[in-house]
Amino acid sequence: xxxxxxxxxxxxxxxxxxxxxxxxxxxxxxxxxxxxxxxxxxxxxxxxxxxxxxxx
Length: 56
Known about the structure:
- With 56 residues, the chain is mainly α.
- Helix content is 61%, strand content 0%.
- The chain has three helices and no strands.
- It is elongated and about 35 Å long.
- The protein starts with a helix and ends with a helix.
């Protein structure tokens, strides 16, 4: 049973319905606008800010 649940979780993440960082669901509007998105908007913003600080 646990393996099945784990596989289901992996499949859900691989379908880009949940954020790779925090695990929250990526809203349908974001998935529609950016189907390649693997992060929720909050995590994406954090990643971009960190990247900008690193470049300076």
